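Archive entry. Fields below.
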Amino acid sequence: NAGVTQTPKFQVLKTGQSMTLQCAQDMNHNSMYWYRQDPGMGLRLIYYSASEGTTDKGEVPNGYNVSRLNKREFSLRLESAAPSQTSVYFCANRNGDIPNTEAFFGQGTRLTVV
Amino acid sequence: QKEVEQDPGPLSVPEGAIVSLNCTYSNSAFQYFMWYRQYSRKGPELLMYTYSSGNKEDGRFTAQVDKSSKYISLFIRDSQPSDSATYLCAMSKYRDDKIIFGKGTRLHILP
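PREDICTED_STRUCTURE:
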């Protein structure tokens, strides 16, 4: 079992380009999350999804869109990338059927916007 | 004021020392407290979790929560070079999907 798989692992974009970060899980968990991690800033929640078809904004949603088309996949889209979006992006999931369980993380996508 | 405050370090200690990592929080609704460990270029992994106030021990690690002071700690005994990593505190409210993280503390254990 892979757990939480993110693609790509690395990406360089030019300012204004768009891209979609993919996340897939094989753990059958309801809740999925996108975080970004910047030096000295910790993990900041961008968007989360409590179940298929639902999404909610987190702490830093501006400049991003998400899509939860099925239980397994949760994608993050940058419509017009900006240098401020240079970061490491982590996808995570959690078993929403059991209150307050741990989150499981993918290995991250390192994005550089030039 | 951020909901969760954590000193980012870095913190360097000699091998074998006791390490104390701490976080403070402002929202008394937090009830579920976690510590994650993150090695360089890897995703965070759960190290310990605890509900409400009190201590929880797992091998060389002890998690402590003081809800009256809104303060949580992670103690590492007999620290090893393999403990060198970033430690992130995290917390959530009961039945709330959101998990809020601290900034993380970079820890270096010197051989």
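CURATOR_NOTE: Chain A touches chain B at residues 4, 31, 33, 35, 40-45, 48, 50, 56, 58, 90, 92, 94, 96, 99-100, 102-108 (CB under 8 Å).
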